[in-house]
Amino acid sequence: MRARTRARRAATERGARPLAPVASTCTVVTANRLTAPYLADASFAVAGLVALIGPSGAGKSTLLRALAGRQYGTRGSANTAKAGLCHVGYVPQTDMLLGSLSTFETLEFHATLRLPRGTPRVDRYARVYDTLAAVGLLERADTRVARLSGGERRRLALACELLALPLVLLLDEPTSGLDAASALSIVQLLSALAHEQRVTIICSIHQPRSAIYELFGTVVLLAHSRVLYVGPRPGTLNPHCVQNLRAAFAHAADADALIDAAARLDIVEARTMHAQHIARMRQTPASAGWLAEPACLSSATDSTADSATELDTLIVPDSAPGGAAGDAVECESELSNPNGDSDDNNTFPVVRRVRWHTQTHMLLWRGTLHTLRTPSLAVAHIGVSLAAALLVGTLFRAVDDSWAGLQNRAGCFFFLVAFYALGALSATETIIADRALLAHERASGCYGTSTFFVAKVVCDLLPLRIVPPLLLAAIAYPLVGLAPGNYAQAVFSATLVLVSLAATSATFALAALAPSIAVANLAAALHVLGAMLFSGFLANGASLSPVYAACQRASFFRYGFEALMASQLEGHTTRIAVPGGTAPVPAALALRMLSLDAGRDTVSRNLVILVALALASLVLAYAALRWRRVTHVYTQ
């Protein structure tokens, strides 16, 4: 805490300052025949502050994701002479931020995971507060993210990427949804980063006003998924500098006119202009926008074409499916020129990602804070469990040895298993809501799928799936008057917990596989209903066909219900009414009449099967999340 206080005081006293030594030239980003779904043969080289504009559906977001290595189906290459994949920042259009954390805690999380391994805590705090000062959020360091304005959230998302000192920043519509003043302040901040720290920033911009448009030095125009123009902002040059383009492009004084001109093109005209752009770029790169910001590039312009084949690759081809979205691995990228010469006064260290246990610790820390600060779901689970305990305890109070008592026991156990099976449906939204966050942070190199999954399982299962059943068992067991003895009560509690875990694990797997929350909810509900139907309580197993008998063997509901019945009726005798009195019937015989097994061996076997079902579902859920890294990187 003292180190944090000192770091904040120091950042406040010195104010905003460069986050890293300033390079002499901007990083040149070169795309060569970059193709992806809804993107055709994008080839260009840019540096400085770059506006990516075009009509809706032109492929702006796709191009940014392709440059960031996060677009499935991307082919071709995007390179830079100075930055490796670990030093390229990507800010999506939707903020990937947890509202329950404070501004400082959000950056502390990213700093711990994204700064080089072994960075001292004092240096990490200093970097966090310097970054907050650079984006103008130092006074909001202790404010919850949920209470920030839209513009402040965009600044915080930008700060998360600036922590790693990227040489290239890719932003997808950073001004979308902001008022005019907030949008202008965001672009002014980006302009300062581009010109003062020589960071190359490529932004997709939707209908920028003139004050924002004039801050950009370079424009990339797209239409019909093709790049039509790359070069200085039209309207700032004489028409002959952009020859072979329509006069409307050469004289367009604002982005609206440029976008309107591009929107009026048909697909044939767009293909023709795209072919002209490719031909100019290959023949005379300097005059065609091949390197489009001379004031920023200086000497880098002359050397780019010669060193293009030696550049570090930013885009991982389709042949390497993990790509940028793979598990967090050690990333060692020397940010230097290909020939090994240092970039003037700027030498960048080797980046080594933090270890698995550190990733797990930080994810558990964040998950615990989120649970404590948004306790509504945990409180709801515990509250309804307490209410169910009182309901069951009063409804089935003091069951006896009669046939009615046996029926009450069976009804009580069926209700409790169904209660926790249905309660597991709340896990669908939590998994699907975090999938986009997982995809973004994993692709940024924060952590891997395994660490995310372990932390997610721990933070969900412990407060929501283990504690509530234990509380219910402690209250309901003595009220109902079930079998005395520690063994019977322990089996009762363990069975409820394992039923909850098995149902939740299956819900995890279905949610990880489902394309949307609605589909996941439907699939999980049908799974619970199917397991309930083959529980052995509604349909006698002896009368089932082989196909339905196989379904019953796969039902977690059956194993939980059978374990409860067998443990509670062990050595028990039920008395049934007969003419002239009552007759004793061994409980094992009554269970066989219901096609249920009896004995401690049955209980042990069923508990082991419940554990196996839960583990198998968790493995399936983990595999599904890893699979989505390739085919559904940003699907929510």
Topology, element by element:
Blueprint: H1 2-14, E1 29-36, E2 39-46, E3 49-53, H2 60-67, E4 75-80, E5 88-91, H3 103-114, H4 121-134, H5 150-162, E6 168-172, H6 180-196, E7 200-204, H7 210-213, E8 218-223, E9 226-232, H8 247-251, H9 255-263, H10 267-283, H11 294-297, H12 300-307, E10 312-313, H13 356-373, H14 376-395, H15 403-423, H16 427-443, H17 449-480, H18 486-513, H19 517-533, H20 546-553, H21 556-568, E11 573-578, E12 581-586, H22 587-593, H23 600-631
Parallel strand pairs: 3-7, 3-8, 5-6, 6-7
Antiparallel strand pairs: 1-2, 1-4, 4-10, 8-9, 11-12
Helix pairs in contact: 1-4, 3-4, 5-6, 13-17, 14-17, 15-18, 15-21, 16-17, 16-18, 17-18, 18-19, 18-21, 18-23, 21-23
Morphology call: elongated
Low-confidence stretches: 237-246, 285-351, 630-636
- Count of extended strands: 12
Q: Indicate the structural class.
A: alpha/beta
Give the % helix: 40-55%
- What Rg, in angstroms, do the CA atoms define? 31 Å
Biggest sheet features? 6 strands, mixed
Distance between the termini: 37 Å
Q: How would you write the strand order of the largest sheet? A: 5-6-7-3-8-9
Number of contiguous helices: 23
